[in-house]
Amino acid sequence: MKKLNYRIIGSKTLAAALCLLVFACKKNDNENEKQAEGTLVKPNYNRNTMFRNPLNGWVMYGSGTGNVSHWDTEYYVPDLGKKVKAIDYASACYIRTRWANFNPSNGVYAWRDPNSALYKMIKGAQDRGLPIAFRIVVDGRDQGLNTPQFVFDAGAQYITEDPKFPDRRTPLPQDPIFRQHYAKFIEELAKDFNDPKKTSFIDAYGLGKWGEAHNVIYFDPAANTPKDKIEQAKEEVMDWISDLYVKNFSKVPLAINYHRVVGDPVSWGSANPNSDRLLTKLINKGYILRQDAFGMTDYYQSWEKAFAKTWNFKRPILMEGGWITSGTHRYWTDPSGKYREGHPEDVRKGEFDSSLEAAVNMMDFRVGDTESWFTKSFTLVQRFISEGGYRLYPERVYVPEKMNANSETTITHRWRNMGWGYFPNNIPQWNYKYKVAFALLDASGAVKKIIVDKDSEPSTWLKSSATNYELKTKVDIPAGTYTWAVAIVDTTNDNKPGIRLAVNGDITTEGWLKLINIQVQ
Known about the structure:
GH, signal, 11 helices, single chain, 8-stranded parallel β-sheet, alpha/beta, 521 residues, 6-stranded mixed β-sheet
């Protein structure tokens, strides 16, 4: 029999509680809630706190040099009237660096050497509670010897674009010697980082200038290679490298840059007819989406916007700003006409607006541009925390306060995602591993029983609507007083809470949100 009382979890004033009581009574007349059993509990939504959840939130940047001093830099935030550390607002650390920094000589892997710069960079992120994300760059045209010298010594073919810089070697990705050594490297990397506790995502292509999946060289540019031969090489290379990453990184999300000339020997121009098909092919293998030119309106154009829209709420999108406002780029020349020289906050607003349109899950604190986010655009930092990515919470839960041991009950629960992005539980590497679960805790807070709702699916929760579930279950524990609690658990990790809920309230150290007590008779 349904009880008409309910509980509000979290700190509320009496007046606010009374307002919620009136609202709840009105809602009880709707949405079939008259059929719900038990006591209604309404957790208190948390709209502002930053939670370090996977594939969600702000990303700090690192490099292969080991210099992490900027991570602990404090920025004065006028909106707060105090200094803060950017890293306290981040959910992951992104390291984009050369293959040679990972693998300086054959069989030597820098991330396993405590004295190496790369090891110290990764350890620095881990010590600060951040998982790592990688992009490995092999193209040397702008940055020098990104591919290790031992690969060329072994006979790998390469091109040098400018004779004045003979050390700027770019390997041809279809060359068998290059592939042999690159595959060996990726296999070794996966042994240590195919672990979602350590690794947020892998930028799993890395070819072309800056590893951005454009301006990829397959043949000598002076050879005037037929277009169809280039297209064949492009797809074959994309198949090879994506298969390599998919095989080795089975538990970690893999990302591909989406743009209209993906994998092409050019960087600009109209969309290649094969771009959509090739990207879709990788997405069907399990790739998620990333773009490195948000806010750069001459590059991130209608094709990219339309492609993002096609995949919204099917695959998560990760954002990187295109313009570097700290002195490298003339961002005020952007054709949008919205960016003033000397006003990086204009670019921050452009990046934020494009991110909102694309419904991205992650945004970036790039080296050199981080300061302007905090000193000039902190409102947007907080807005993304409050509005962007995913923010999941149980809007309503009906649970019994008294029942007999070994008897059945029905738990009715309703969930909402308050973020503009989505929770990517459907990607192959996660394989729907996150589920809603209820726990019964004893007086010490120890978990005595966990009940997983296998029908719950957080990837379908969107901001526009709530999702309701009914879970019929048997409470087969000894008589006594317990506390109902709820969480989103990782079913591959002993059903431990895996996602921080966007709620205020009494939350255990492990991550269970306490609801109300139950007397089992």
